[in-house]
Design a protein that fits this description.
The protein is mainly α. It has 21 helices and 2 strands. It is globular, with a radius of gyration of 22 Å.
Length: 454
């Protein structure tokens, strides 16, 4: 498993002080070096998007992400290139993510897309418009998707989808829904290059140790010479977190994940809305979606006769989803699997020290909490750990970014985990991105499997 090189924080502009065995020296030609990846992106796209800059805190993951996204959007596949970008527009619009919509509108036109399509869903072919239903469901309540939804798309005679096309579309939808969470979670939506307010700033030398790698490369210095507000230390919060971690193996109450969701509601874990109560620019994206009022609802509120809990022991990515998606859309399964493993393998000695436990324990708590919100259960996990591991403000942040990303604001980002570095907060957002994407894929691929064997 590939592990991120560990780094030490140092004041901006000061000489880097390395500790033996903590930082891996990178050369400018190292594909895992962030400035090398940044230059590749600049060469291919002509600009360095905010998403790339934020993911640059974890270069191994960024490399895997860029390969997957390039394969989805630009390599040979079942769907035409203009349709891929339009599907991305539809997916991003569900969360009013202007950042992604604007990016894909430009790429849609560069791919030769019909400008009339940008007037809204009424101006696109019925085949694409029929995708709206599963786009809506996967974005907000993926547990509602059934084999009937799949059958409807595959058997509409003139406008029918092939299985390969549908799998490609489903991966695109899940990818863009999850990426919208990352965009809002890290403040990329406010990237001033796309007309936003520019509240959050990109990668800085203060959180990564690349001074030796960039010493003889002016382009690397320019790319990384951007300020990032450093997270403030909070000793009281740190001690409190350590105490909660130490109680994990002592307390045994609250083992059921439904009780966890019920507690969230009782504690009022709801997103912090904007001051005016509305999402800026939402009306501009209304033409790309239908039923805009359809949104996330707590899975625990479902009626007893509706969809049952999704048990990973019965259908998992490793044993079922990977082979299906790889068979119908060649090689994408390997790329997705590498990305899931990469985010799971990201390590931070500083994070482990602050938590007082193994990083894997904390990461699994975040991953399982996100899956729990979508009704996915791991029978071998004690859900009492979630309440011990995750403080209330962190849970509010995770739930908002996962389920209502358009309601995320910079204040929420600043308030959670004040004692942690910005790069560690980005790490949390990468976990949210991948956990959410896998949750959507599990439900969609299970429905496709049920259709195929029915």
């Amino acid at each position: 498993m590939i592990v991120c090189p560990q780094s030490v924080e140092h004041p901006r502009g000061s000489r880097c002080q390395r500790l033996p065995g903590q930082v891996v020296k990178m050369s400018s030609s190292d594909p895992e070096c962030p400035q090398f990846l940044f230059v590749k992106v600049l060469a291919s796209r002509g600009r360095l998007e905010a998403v790339t800059q934020q993911m640059g805190y974890h270069p191994q993951y960024l490399d895997s992400f860029l390969k997957t996204q390039h394969y989805l959007m630009h390599m040979d596949g079942p769907l035409p290139f203009d349709c891929r970008h339009y599907i991305a527009i539809m997916a991003a619009a569900r969360h009013q993510c202007r950042y992604l919509v604007n990016l894909h509108v430009l790429q849609f036109l560069r791919a030769g897309g019909d400008p009339q399509w940008l007037r809204g869903l009424e101006f696109i072919p019925p085949k694409l418009r029929n995708l709206n239903e599963i786009n809506k469901i996967l974005a907000h309540r993926p547990w509602l998707i059934t084999k009937e939804h799949i059958e409807k798309l595959l058997k509409i005679s003139e406008w029918s989808w092939s299985l390969a096309e549908l799998v490609h579309a489903v991966v695109l939808l899940a990818h863009c829904h999850a990426l919208a969470s990352f965009v809002f979670g890290c403040g990329c939506e406010q990237d001033e290059g796309l007309g936003g307010r520019g509240l959050l700033k990109p990668l800085s030398l203060g959180n990564q140790c690349f001074c030796e790698a960039t010493a003889s490369n002016s382009y690397g210095q320019e790319l990384l010479r951007i300020n990032r507000k450093r997270s403030l230390d909070s000793c009281m919060e740190l001690d409190s977190l350590r105490e909660r971690m130490q109680r994990i193996h002592v307390e045994t109450e609250g083992r059921d994940e439904m009780r966890l969701l019920q507690q969230d509601r009782e504690e009022g874990l709801s997103p912090l809305a904007d001051t005016d109560g509305e999402v800026t620019g939402a009306t501009n994206l209304a033409c790309y979606m239908q039923d805009p009022d359809f949104g996330y609802q707590d899975f625990a509120r479902r009626d007893e006769d509706q969809t049952q809990v999704f048990r990973v022991q019965d259908y998992s990515w490793e044993d079922h989803g990977f082979s299906l998606v790889n068979r119908l859309y060649s090689d994408i399964g390997h790329l997705l699997d590498e990305k899931f493993r990469m985010v799971d393998g990201l390590q931070s000695s500083a994070m482990a020290k602050r938590q007082g436990c193994e990083p894997s324990v904390f990461k699994r708590g975040i991953w399982n909490y996100i899956h729990c919100m979508f009704g996915i259960r791991y029978d071998d996990y004690d859900y009492a750990e979630v309440n011990q591991l995750l403080e209330r403000m962190l849970k509010v942040y995770i739930k908002t970014v996962t389920c209502y990303p358009e309601k995320t604001n910079s204040e929420m980002f600043d308030r959670f985990w004040k004692q942690f570095k910005h790069s560690e907060k980005v790490h949390v957002n990468l976990l949210i991105l991948e956990a959410r994407m896998q949750a959507e894929l599990l439900y969609a691929l299970q429905a496709i499997t049920q259709y195929m064997i029915s």
